[in-house]
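Lab notes, practical 5.
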Amino acid sequence: MRAHILHHVPFETAGSIADWLDARHATVSETRWYESANVPDPAELDLVVVMGGTMSVNDEAQRPWLVTEKAFLRQAIARGTPTLGICLGSQMIASALGARVTRNPFIEHGWFPVEGIPVPGAFRFPDRFTTFHSHGETFEIPPGAVRIASSAGCENQAYQIGRHVIGLQFHLESNPESEGAIVEECATEFDAGPYVQSTDELRRTVPEAYRESARLMGDVLSYLTR
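Output from the prediction step:
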């Protein structure tokens, strides 16, 4: 398996996604948009993973590489390359396919419940699970996609397109290191609100929460690549 990971900020790592790929002896390449705009030929890839970041997908004037990334994503999706978007990554895929990305009614930063939506033929999330969130914007469901998860704090938590594209607004890949880096970098970005946990609360996340998220992340990746 050859996987390619798109990174938007240096502190946001692939977390348990990297562990899953390593366990399968995958060849992993990366594009770090904050360093270079070079991307491979999607025809050579078995999986594309689009990570999160602090910018908006609408910042094309300030960050011209967003245009390049969206074109790459359209090409990969058109070829049928399995593609997974995480947080900003899910918004990037949605925007690349013509859906709007706007402010969410609530900022989400912390561990909050999500409800799976059963859709015939689509990935099946648990009826209810808790995972880590860190975002202020949200995507519209892209053309041709189905909503497969939702929550009280954010209506559109996940979508699927065909058999090969899944976008997640939340961070199933979170482990103590990856979450800790996000919390440290974003500590001053989020005001208090009903879906914002304090740094002290986040530091008390139990190990089982990370294990369950990693298990579910693995299920998503297995579904996309089988």
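Observations recorded by the TA: The CA atoms of residues 172 and 213 lie 5 Å apart. The radius of gyration is 16 Å.
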